[in-house]
């Protein structure tokens, strides 16, 4: 079944070429991290995936990444969205390269999938073929290992994760107990790339079964 894609929108971006010393201390920046790229995204999990991708394409590190409470529908302003992310690097050019990668990932590669016509019911079943420094640290795995990044509304997340873990030779390395800041849930699974894909497919199918008949048990 082909599901409609829901892409994230990068809402605001700013580059700080030479970060102030006090702010650098607040973010515990390394001595060579002189520049920052700051952005907000309308979808948090796509933003985190894009941050990880940036660490593979530029000399940057993720120094801050947080979701906002209740999601973009209840954002604090029109440019807030669901999350804020900050990259640090040695030069403005490096953090700009990282930001270019984030935009490309959000526009083309990573997306939620709508499981109803109104696009009010959606899931994230994305396979990271090779993790960068950010997601590998979050998951507690070696950099370069695959991940299945699985997110859904609360009940669907629990049911879908169980199906995903049973469907393939994968292990759960991070559990996002529902509700998250944006009222979803899910987890990160690792294994071979093919196993992660099988887990993501099983996650999607399990949640579709819930959506099609939510009260059948």
From TrEMBL:
Compartments in which it is found: Bacterial microcompartment
Keywords: Bacterial microcompartment
Superkingdom of origin: Bacteria
InterPro entries, per the entry: BMC_CP (IPR044870), BMC_dom (IPR000249), CcmK-like_sf (IPR037233), EutL (IPR030983), EutL_PduB (IPR009193)
Protein's UniProt keywords contain DNA repair: no
Domain (BMC circularly permuted) ranges: 113-217
Chief localisation class: other
Pfam families noted in UniProt: BMC (PF00936)
Name this protein carries in UniProt: Ethanolamine utilization protein EutL
Organism: Sutcliffiella rhizosphaerae
Origin organism lineage: Bacteria, Bacillati, Bacillota, Bacilli, Bacillales
Underlying gene: eutL
């Amino acid at each position: 079944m082909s599901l409609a894609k829901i892409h994230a929108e990068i809402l605001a971006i700013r580059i700080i070429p030479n970060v102030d010393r006090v702010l650098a201390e607040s973010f515990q920046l390394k001595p060579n991290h002189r520049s920052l790229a700051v952005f907000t995204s309308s979808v948090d999990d796509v933003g985190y995936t894009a941050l990880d991708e940036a660490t593979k394409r530029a000399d940057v590190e993720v120094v801050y990444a947080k979701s906002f409470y209740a999601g973009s529908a209840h954002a604090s302003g029109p440019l807030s969205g669901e999350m804020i992310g900050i990259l640090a690097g040695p030069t403005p050019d490096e953090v700009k390269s990282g930001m270019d990668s984030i935009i490309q990932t959000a526009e083309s590669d990573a997306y939620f999938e709508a499981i109803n016509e109104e696009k009010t019911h959606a899931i994230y079943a994305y396979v990271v073929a090779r993790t960068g420094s950010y997601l590998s640290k979050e998951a507690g795995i070696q950099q370069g290992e695959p991940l299945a990044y699985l997110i859904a509304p609360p009940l669907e997340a629990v049911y879908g994760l169980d199906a995903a873990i049973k469907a393939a030779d994968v292990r759960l390395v991070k559990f996002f107990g529902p509700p998250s800041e944006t009222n979803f849930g899910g987890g990160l699974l690792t294994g071979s790339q093919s196993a992660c894909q099988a887990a993501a497919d099983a996650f999607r199918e399990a949640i579709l079964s819930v959506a099609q008949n939510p009260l059948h048990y």
